[in-house]
Specification:
163 residues, alpha+beta, 6 strands, Peptidase_S1_PA, hydrolase, TAT_signal
């Protein structure tokens, strides 16, 4: 049975979409911070009240995540409008939304490395899940892929950031 390139691309987009979700959920976006020190014990061995966290802990964790992810965020210029994407790997693949690419096949991309505007081409689009992948025609030095987390380690109730 022959599989069309479009079917093959869609089959590849499913694991990619799971990876994108994993980055949002487990790639450090949980807002967790280092463990607080254990409460001190009194002479009788009982804990002295609960440990208080500094009110800035969550804000600092957010800033750390944002500072780590922002260099991986790109601006995509399609003839119909602008959108954003995230650098998926060091080969220049960028994950974005299908509504950003629309029916276009070529794009202009601005990356965080400050390079001149770069050209990119559509790899595949999956409108049913609003996902698309484009690829830079030339990969600049210093392109920073996003760090992807492990979806198996996501826990209910974790804080996430959407960028």
């Amino acid at each position: 049975m022959d599989v069309s390139p479009r079917s093959r691309a869609r089959r590849l987009l499913l694991p990619l979409s799971a990876a994108v979700c994993a980055i949002a959920l487990a790639g450090g976006c949980s807002g967790t911070s280092p463990a607080a020190p254990a409460p001190e014990s009194s002479a009788s061995g009982t804990a002295q009240g609960s440990v208080k966290r500094a009110p800035d802990d969550l804000e600092n964790a957010y800033q750390d995540v944002i500072n780590d992810v922002l260099p991986s965020v790109v601006q995509i210029d399609a003839s119909e409008g602008l959108g954003s994407g995230i650098v998926y790997d060091d080969r220049g693949h960028i994950v974005t939304n299908a509504h950003v690419v629309g029916d276009e096949k070529t794009f202009k991309v601005s990356v965080a490395t400050g390079e001149a505007v770069l050209s990119a081409s559509l790899v595949s689009s999956y409108p049913e899940q609003d996902l698309a992948v484009i690829k830079l025609d030339e990969v600049p030095d210093g392109l920073k892929p996003a760090k992807f987390g492990d979806a198996e380690k996501v826990e209910v109730g974790q804080i996430v950031l959407a960028m």
